[in-house]
């Protein structure tokens, strides 16, 4: 349950309390004399001579309206600030709270929820603790503490507060939803589903719990149940954007991309800046082969969250497929900027930098990729680039360090050695024989590529292309060098 929903719940309580105060403390209207309620009688006519010119009447001052008692005046001011959404103003008002209201637990909970809404979790916890000091089992105060502890990343405090709630209320809606969310983040779909299910036992129509339950069943491949639960949400609230988008995913599972797009567009009507919806819709367009529409969706996602990496990764991939390498390279660089720990991006970016002849950049990126994955190929690519630039000394230093990590009689060891030792025809023949005996097609193709690259580095272009052609002829290769082999055929 998010912090805005807690505020709504507590403010509902405040509204009830406000009504109660109004009814019990506002003075009753004075009784009116029955004579006043009688219909007015026609005035009797007076003889003309008896009529006296009336004196000028004096205007009576308007009586002052009675002032509200302090508690009602405070309640009205607070309600007016809340109606305007002025959270900070509402918090400040509590500094002037009437003395008779200072110990009111409901108002303390309102103040705590305001602090939550303002992101001041420490103060929210402090006020919630004041409530718990009087009422140790107050569920609202404990719920506020769980929410704040979760927001602060204080797992110890969160678990303690959650445990206290579940001891009294094992099907507590807020705590079970939060635990469901936590399990979902850890990809523990069944545990998450069960937590959402407990929340639904207390509140069968809770949209957050229903959505969580539907999403977990979707991840667990129970698509029929996921669809039924989503429909339950939409029957109560046809504008629920999350449920509409999930229905779109379910339509895509049936390859109905037209319906998936329509449902996601409907979701965007109610949540127009949802990053994930644009990612999904772009994917559905891609499956239809409508690449320009995919690119529009993913660029819109970038506008919404320019510092998140995923849309850049999607754009880089689709531009790469279309061989729009300059745009692909830009987006790969953006992936690295926004997610420096996404090491696959270093490899992809390095390949394109290599393709454009930016060897210095490519080497730095291969080095970065090597720091995440101890793949000898990255270092051999760097050796080859130094050799292309005429540097014979640096490659030997790299090769010496690399060969220390490789088995001396392995193909990889002898392949690295081929690049930096004085050329030996016998050594090359022995190496080729070992490669040709390799049963693993991916490993064999990778080795053949580096033989081709060796020839390219040493100026034997025709021999290089012969080996690149063997690599390019492979079906569904699973190594990054395959692309470089394809480009090498155009030398």
Overview of the structural elements:
It is elongated, with a radius of gyration of 37 Å. Helix 9 packs antiparallel against helix 10 and helix 19 packs antiparallel against helix 20. By secondary structure, it is an all-alpha fold. Helix content is 71%, strand content 0%.
How do the helices and strands follow one another from N- to C-terminus?
Answer: HHHHHHHHHHHHHHHHHHHHHHHHHHH
Q: What is the beta-strand fraction?
A: under 5%
Number of helices: 27
Instruction: Extract low-pLDDT stretches.
Output: 1-5, 15-40
Helix percentage: over 70%
Distance between the termini: 60 Å
Helix vs. strand class: mainly alpha
**How many DSSP-defined strands?**
0
* Structural shape: elongated
Largest sheet descriptor: none
Radius of gyration: 37 Å
Instruction: Output mean pLDDT.
Output: 88
Give keywords.
491 residues, mainly alpha
What's the structural blueprint in terms of helices and strands?
Elements: H1 3-25, H2 34-37, H3 70-84, H4 87-93, H5 105-117, H6 121-134, H7 139-152, H8 155-168, H9 173-185, H10 189-202, H11 207-219, H12 223-236, H13 241-253, H14 257-270, H15 275-287, H16 291-304, H17 310-321, H18 325-338, H19 343-355, H20 359-372, H21 376-388, H22 393-403, H23 411-420, H24 425-436, H25 441-457, H26 461-472, H27 481-488
Helix pairs in contact: 1-3, 1-5, 3-4, 4-5, 5-6, 5-7, 6-7, 7-8, 9-10, 9-11, 10-11, 11-12, 11-13, 12-13, 13-14, 14-15, 15-16, 16-17, 17-18, 18-19, 19-20, 20-21, 21-22, 22-23, 23-24, 23-25, 25-26, 26-27
Describe this structure in a few short sentences.
This protein has 491 residues and is mainly α. It has helices spanning 3-25, 34-37, 70-84, 87-93, 105-117, 121-134, 139-152, 155-168, 173-185, 189-202, 207-219, 223-236, 241-253, 257-270, 275-287, 291-304, 310-321, 325-338, 343-355, 359-372, 376-388, 393-403, 411-420, 425-436, 441-457, 461-472, 481-488.
